Amino acid sequence: MQILVILGHPDPDSLNHAIASAVCDSLRENGHRVLFHDLCAENFDPLLSKEEIPDSGFVPDVIRNHCKELQTADGIVIIHPNWWGQPPAILKGWIDRVFRPGIAYRFDEGDRGEGIPVGLLKATAALVINTSNTPDERERSAFGDPLEALWKRCIFDLCGVQTFHRRTFNVVVTSSSDQRRRWLNEAKELAANVFCEKSTQHQV
Q1: For 136-165, how does the pLDDT look when each residue is reduced to its tens digit (9 = 90+)?
Q2: Comparing C-alpha atoms, which of 138, 143, 126 is closest to residue 171?
Q3: Is residue 77 helix, strand or coil?
Q4: What would the mean pLDDT of 9-33 be, rounded to a whole number?
Q5: CA distance 199 to 202
Q6: Taking Cα atoms as reference points, which of 124, 128, 175 lies closest to residue 151?
Q7: Which residue intervals of the chain are DSSP H helices?
Q8: Exposed, middle or buried by CB within 10 Å (0-12, 13-18, 19+), for 196?
Q9: In terms of Cα–Cα distance, which of 70, 53, 128 is closest to 104?
């Protein structure tokens, strides 16, 4: 399988970077082809211009390449911290610019955008891994877990990815080195288990 892995964190010494490395290693060990992007290291421009908004608008080559990789991926992994209940701005900008109409979704004839889109992505499964300093119970009770709604219901469900997995590692700020090692091992196991033929045949 060809797996697209997207990392959104500015610090190369972060747990997010270690998770991304562990995930990529696991995928390659299991025979997958990995397309990896560290958006911050690549200086990805998150700003969507007005010229890119129309279906037939001008799309720079770098965005066309990202679109092609998204369109042809058999699986997708997103890794980022929970910042104010959202992904970092660079990752939100990647969504804005790359999850384009005609690439990730389309609307039926006569639908000007007010209806429910038809998903176009080939990917059979998506895995989102977050880091957070908020305990799970408070995230759900106080905030309603906005990242679950964003990634599952607002993005992958609407773009045709039928199998969705998400794991949050928390609380990072008080974690020990042993705990972080356990998280890295779990991330490797998640990547291995999510992207196998059996696990991608059924929606989770």
Answers
A1: 788 888 887 999 999 999 999 999 999 999
A2: 138
A3: strand
A4: 98
A5: 6
A6: 128
A7: 15-29, 61-72, 89-98, 136-138, 146-148, 177-194
A8: middle
A9: 70
